[in-house]
Amino acid sequence: MSRFWIQAWTIARRDLLVEGRSRETVAVVVPFATAAVFVVPFATDALDVRLATIAFPVYWLVGLLFGMQVALRQTAVESLAQRRQLALLGTDPVARFTGRVASAAVLILVVLVVTAPLIFLFYDPDPIARPWPMTGVLVLFAAGMAMLSTLAGDITTGLATRTSLAPLLVVPVSVPLLLGAAQSLESLVRGRTTLPWVLTLVVTDLALALTGVMTARSLEESNT
Fold this sequence. Notes:
mainly alpha
């Protein structure tokens, strides 16, 4: 078990080091996500008094689109030679999946955390009555998006239509994540219980984790 977690940590650390050197999330994804936050209102006829009504939908839409972009990129930067080398070194496919999900989740959280203050600054939505539980919601959403996008990236690896097919796999399955996260945030704003929606996120994450564990070895074999 300790070997498993060492391998997972090594994979996650590698991906984060690659990101640290390329700085694509910080230099490309975050600026585009920021631009999206400010551009969306211009695509509507919303007056200032109505901006608050679209604040949280815009936030989760940005989280979905740019979170998916971050996670799919994580699967794209790993070459066939690297995947074969990891297999020859005896790296557990589940540990590889776990490490890549962990690094992708961290980067998705960066996007969510950076865009959150912009949403409150520009859209001026209702304040969150209990802000601290929102941290758990963000973590569950980021983990789910990371697992879903990593699975989609592995399934479409090597396909000529990968860039268009992977998002088509992610978006429909992400509905429970979006629903759970959006309704949890709405419940926090209204001061209501978030338990049903948090459970939705937890169950979805567990289902994605189980799918990732069960398919990790077969996907590795098909991709190497």
